[in-house]
Amino acid sequence: MTAATMLLLAEPGFASDLAADANFPALITPSAEAPVAVEPADLSIKTDVPVGDITENSDDTPDAKTAPVTAESLAALVAATPRPAEMDPELRCLAGTVYFESRGESLVGQLAVAHVVINRAQSGRFPKSLCGVVHQRSQFSFVRGGKMPAVREGAQWSNAIAIAQIARDGSWKNHAPGALFFHARYVSPGWRKTRIAQIDNHIFYR
């Protein structure tokens, strides 16, 4: 590894596969298959980004499939989603990933991150369970010693739980369909992957 490469990997916002929380610097283990970089969260929830059309799963009016909606509508869905008294391990792993990787992004961006985990579990290229994906070695830098750090209870954690449920239920349109990887837009890793979307500060690929 060259000195220039080591300097790049030492910069905040670069993880070997998925985004790192600002409070947990990345542990770099280069991977030819799935390196991903992302910039730290700014810890502010944004709800003013257009998110497209309602999916069929949320179709409750005759025009729902074509009616344009805004992030405020997704915010309303997040607010209306009941938080379980007890979470199953898979939901907790997914919500934890949303929280640590993207809690400073818009709700649309958080949803896209959740779908990356789900897509990986369904791809046949990664572990088959959500927790298996999240705890796969050298993929998520916020996971230390095979364990997820403690979350700080509050609005951001509550949002992450709701987003995880919405993603798992498929009840809202994902604007990075099929994405398995993403990196911060200020990084140019030179991947030979198919670019799908840019949402907030991240670019998604499959």
Give an overview in words.
The chain has 206 residues and is of the alpha+beta class. It has a single domain (3-205), classed as Cell wall hydrolase SleB, domain 1 (Arc Repressor Mutant, subunit A, Orthogonal Bundle), CATH 1.10.10. Helix content is 33%, strand content 10%. It has helices at residues 3-10, 71-80, 89-102, 107-123, 130-134, 155-169, and strands at residues 14-15, 36-37, 52-53, 68-69, 181-184, 195-199, 202-205. The strands form 3 sheets. Strands 5-7-6 form a 3-stranded antiparallel beta sheet, covered by helices on one side. Strands 1-2 form a two-stranded antiparallel sheet. A two-stranded antiparallel ribbon has the order 3-4. Strand 6 (195-199) and strand 7 form a beta hairpin. The protein is globular and about 45 Å long. Mean pLDDT is 73; it is low at 1-70.
Brief summary:
The chain has 6 helices and 7 strands; from the N terminus they run αββββαααααβββ. The chain is of the alpha+beta class.
Features of the shown structure:
206 residues; alpha+beta; Arc Repressor Mutant, subunit A; three-stranded antiparallel beta sheet; two-stranded antiparallel ribbon; 6 helices; globular; disordered N terminus
